[in-house]
Amino acid sequence: MKKTxxxxxxxxxxxxICYAGKKVISTPHAPAAIGPYSQAIQVGSxxxxxxxxxxDPKTGKFVPGGFAAQARQALKNQKAVLEAAxxxxxxxxxxxxxxxxxxxxxxFNAIYKEFFKKDFPARAVLEVSRIPADGLVEIMMIAEK
Length: 145
Hints:
It is a single chain. By secondary structure, the chain is of the alpha+beta class. Helix content is 32%, strand content 26%. The chain has helices spanning 2-18, 66-84, 105-115; strands spanning 22-25, 40-43, 46-52, 92-99, 122-127, 137-144. The protein has a six-stranded mixed beta sheet with strand order 1-2-3-6-4-5, with helices on one face. Strand 2 and strand 3 form a beta hairpin. The longest helix is centred in the middle third of the chain and has 19 residues, at 66-84.
């Protein structure tokens, strides 16, 4: 009987820890979604961040300055979403980067290193034919505490 109770309690605690529910994360310090999606979803200790463009959160328009400015702003936007959920760039475990022109890869790497200094997240950078709102770069992330 004691083993059954202990096993049931252990299973309950494990399920409670593993499935903490889904929490929608939203902040005015990053651009509002331009479609039917959330800025991020937290499930337990994981945070799934939707793609961010180089949009100014105040105006909803692309920042001027081309690829470099948009890439920097997209990373700033992701940082704001992370912070709204109580995470930081150090918690990022994966980035997915979509660029309009892969010739910007070296430029992106230099900008990326302004935000990630060491223990870099796993990452993929892909050239795509089109990005929402005709942006030049879009960045998605996954973070874990």
